[in-house]
Amino acid sequence: MTDGARARRREQTRRTLLRESRRLFASRGYGAVGLAEIVDAAAVTKGALYHHFDSKTDLFRAILEQVQQEVAQKVAATAQAHDDPWEQLTAGCRAFLAASSDPDVQQIMLIDAPAVLGWAEWRAMDESASAHHLAEALSTLIAQGTIAPQPVEPLTHLLSGAMNEAALWLATATDPNALAATWAALSQMLEALRHR
Amino acid sequence: MTDGARARRREQTRRTLLRESRRLFASRGYGAVGLAEIVDAAAVTKGALYHHFDSKTDLFRAILEQVQQEVAQKVAATAQAHDDPWEQLTAGCRAFLAASSDPDVQQIMLIDAPAVLGWAEWRAMDESASAHHLAEALSTLIAQGTIAPQPVEPLTHLLSGAMNEAALWLATATDPNALAATWAALSQMLEALRHR
DNA sequence: CTCCTTCGCGTACCGTTGGTATGTGAAGGT
DNA sequence: ACCTTCACATACCAACGGTACGCGAAGGAG
């Protein structure tokens, strides 16, 4: 069913298209890359592209989904290596910072995505991919009394936004211990949430 | 010198162009607005537009500069109403949140700007417009011992990113006391920076 | 007042872009 | 052996950002 020469070729074309367009979008930005360049790099034509994706925006959406899943998986894997919910939160945040330091992830997920898809859709995708986990972790910590009772949504957005911007800055920072300093400051903020 | 019929007409055309394009960019986003629509709304032609601006991107840059100055002025005015550096910081952050709740400001300054101009240029403009003041306030507080000695740059980016994302979320939040809850959480984080 | 220059802007046009309609040949069922 | 379906190629289009050039009014020089 999922097999056959035609299905295999289809999958391969789609994967090549995603791979090449992701490479180009990541290196030069969504707006600066034309479809002609993409289909040329993938050694196909626009007909093939539009057979797999509804539009240039739809292609970008598929790439973003892929990037977000990769980041979310790294964060989840790191967090699940710990038992204590508080350590899960801190380790998850560290893992997110590390994953977001990848230039590809930054250009696609943090810079272009909100402008290309609109903030609302970007937000919805980020929610289901990673912000949901963050909110859940915070809820758990509130439930067990580690964090003072308070609405989790504002907290989620403040932390998410802080880490996103910090990751973008780290990419251009020349100071070799900028990552350590950033983590120290973020850790300081997280500690502030602990019940006194 | 700055007067004369020709100079007055020039200024008026430029201002009309900025006003209309800002309105359109803010309401539908940079990518979804064409130059034809802009010059039509301003009752001029593309010749006039390109006489005042080098490109569509350059037009956007001029608008962004204007928006950032407005926000920065509101923040500075609020901060300077206080004497205590700590109150200047907190009041400034509150003012920034309030100013960034304007949908026009969000679409132009927070959503489109990084993608249109690239993160580096956006960062540079934000730096000279408002982030510089934030960093200065933090430096002052460190110098006077209110905040523990630490690098200010990571702190600046964490706080700036947190406030940006929070402002975007507040725009879509239905909960009427979302602003209060957000400020409570942010205030909690700021308090954490105070020397123990 | 006259002449010439400059300036602000309009007109006409171009190359490229995202998107579409249609053709085509191989794969797969019957 | 036949017909359908599918994956993709080809050819084309409207709209876009951008440019070259023309034109009329404003302003300085004599």
From TrEMBL, chains A, B:
- Keyword Protein biosynthesis on this protein? no
* Xref: PROSITE patterns: HTH_TETR_2 (PS50977)
One Pfam entry name: TetR_N
Record flagged with keyword Transcription regulation: yes
Enumerate the spans annotated as HTH tetR-type domain: 11-71
Alphabetical keyword list: DNA-binding, Transcription, Transcription regulation
Residue range(s) of DNA binding per entry: 34-53
Q: Which PANTHER family match?
A: HTH-TYPE TRANSCRIPTIONAL REGULATOR YJDC, TRANSCRIPTIONAL REGULATORY PROTEIN
- What name appears for this protein in its UniProt entry? TetR/AcrR family transcriptional regulator
Query: Whose protein is this, by species?
Result: Nonomuraea antimicrobica
